[in-house]
Amino acid sequence: MAKKIFKGRPVLSGKLEGKALVSKMPFNLTGSYFENMFAGNTESAPCTDANNPDLFKKDMKDAILCTSQCVGSTMGAGALMGVSEMGVGLKAFLFSSHIDSIAAGGLIIDDVWYDRRVITIDLLGDEFLEAVKTGDPISIAEDGTVTVG
Amino acid sequence: MKLTKDEQAILGGSKGPEMAKLMKIQVVFGNTFGAEKLVDLGGAPHSNLYPGAPYLSSMIKMLDECATAGLKSYAPYTVNPRPYDCFNVQNNEKEMQIVYEGYPLQKELDWVHARLGAPDLNKRSCACYVKEVGNAPKPGTMVAWAESSAVNYGNSVLGIRTNRNGAGIDLISAITAKAPYFGLMTDEGRQAKWLVEVKTSKAPDWGVLGTAIGRKVVEDVPLVAGIDKYFEGSEVTEDNMHLLKAMGSATAASGAVGLYHVENLTPDAKEKGRKLLEEGYQTYVYDDAEEQKTIKTFDNLWPRKDGDPTAAFIGCPHNTLYEMKKWGKLVTEGLEKDGKEKTAIPVYMFCANVVKLQLIADDGELAGKMLKAGMIATPMCGVTWAGTKGFSDRVQGITNSAKTRNYSSIRYFPDQTLVDIIVSGKVPS
Lengths: 149, 429
Known about the structure:
- The structure holds 2 protein chains of 2 kinds.
- By secondary structure, chain A is an alpha/beta fold.
- Chain A has a single domain, classed as Glucose Oxidase, domain 1 (3-Layer(bba) Sandwich), CATH 3.50.30.
- Chain A has helices at 29-32, 34-38, 76-86, 101-114, 126-131; strands at residues 4-7, 9-12, 16-22, 27-28, 64-67, 70-71, 92-95, 119-122, 137-140, 145-148.
- The N and C termini of chain A lie close together (6 Å).
- The chains are: A alpha/beta, B alpha/beta.
């Protein structure tokens, strides 16, 4: 496939290569991590949001998650820190739109207090989410450039 | 973000290493959202950090370090309900095993809250703004609340100014007594990008309306028109605030709505009217057809789809005193009409303990009838229970909460249908 390049804003910068996991609909942070938050799963991170056909039951451990933005309860910040500590968190979080205050809170606290970083890029644009598909190769650069393909 | 000299000194360690780190988090967080400054907070904080679950161990450890360093909230603050209740709900061996294995850090978390400045457990509630709990700052007060439904109600109905803070940022702001000034705290951030015109032939189903709005506007601010007529005298009162609580919490659960305006009703809308609408705003019409369309998306997620319900969940967010009385009457009168003494399934009434005590003080006879009928008042968080391991295998729940529905396998029904199911034990075909 032809490579497509998108320039975003690094909220928490870093360099990474891997494969995309895509949620075309907004990602419900709390709704997606219920099994890790309340059901004792520390081995994997199966998405528990039955409203999300792209991700429901898919393992999000170590994923490069591509979505538009996050929705849902304010417990989501704690959920992100929790899955990070369990070792089943995301490797990178890529947003076509602006990062929200819930996700940003969890990711930034984890980064500053515990030195645990999930590379986070936002403002990649609608075209990014239209172009990227689950399984696509992704390359992330320090300056927020994301290459798909 | 431009910091004052004092703030720069804190960042440099003048108030200790913990405060310096908290300030750094505030600065990175504020810069992410283009905040130009930090503002001093007033009123009282509200925290959603409630479950002592292992996934929160990092958060609890950080706050424990702050409390050990002698740091404290700038004012006594309210906290979301605890995640379990072994007196009234999980009072059997199997559920207790799940509770004690699932929340091994509850003691540590409660102890952290006590040291940082939370009041006793009787006031634990997600509906911190009800009179009995008493955290309802004056309009215009800058605060940094967490809990999506409380943020949403506070911004919209009380007219306070807070962003949708995640767990952690709430207490970091409480300890620093400051928050980055951006988003829903600013006049510009409170402008509406959507006009929602409600044109239903009768009062809307408030939870369904909220779900539809959340899905449509996602994180934007809507101005909702056409519903003020359901609020007598265009005032939000103790007797009708639950309607906005139901609608708002659903917008925050199905979307990320932190603020909505209701034409002629909520403080910003009363002051500014349709001047709240941004240039180029979009319009969404919600009518009977839209309501039905939304309801049809509420799938039956019970493992045994045609099975009978085993429990009713009333009150997410937590019931107000009015709701406790309303549901008490609806259910006990429904039973009397059917010649029955007890509900077919247990009915869990989620509310702050101080609300339950007020119900007993106000109307002991009704409280007694409710107890005898099988209605169990509990201060826990119902939606958290619904998220515990194997819940849907143990419980086939029904609810009046669109928020609970959004996060669980519990099925949503309108009030009267819910009463009929509670009395008969059967879901109508």
